[in-house]
Task: structure prediction
Amino acid sequence: PKVPNRSSALRRMVGISKEVTPPREITLDRYNQHTKICPDSLACVANCDMIRKTSKVLAALAIATKLIVASSTTPTDLMTKINQNLGHKTVAVILGILAVTSHLAGKLKNAFYFAYPESKRDRDLKKIPTLYGR
Result:
């Protein structure tokens, strides 16, 4: 679904040879062209990494706490209260929220890198109905 002769026609108009034109991976590389030199972007990427790690640790702690409290043979008063308040549905909701948080932080982090590879572009172009040339 690429437009035939488009790039060569544009190169002839502007006077650019094919050897000089860098590939898409270099031209559209957000990380090297922006993120790496922008302190705010680097901070956002670092925050996304921290959010993902924290949500994984909190999920592991929630599961471990539930397993330890529920399987204790001699529960203390505190363990009994935790077990009553930390039901299966509550743990499931907590894990769901943490999973969504981790996923969204990963999506945001990926926005600071090369985000539109050629395979994705070709897949998007196939969605466009072909009306030209008929």
User: Anything to note?
Assistant: The chain has seven helices and no strands. The CA atoms of residues 62 and 91 lie 7 Å apart. The chain has a mean pLDDT of 81. Helices lie at 6-14, 24-27, 30-33, 39-71, 77-85, 88-110, 118-126.
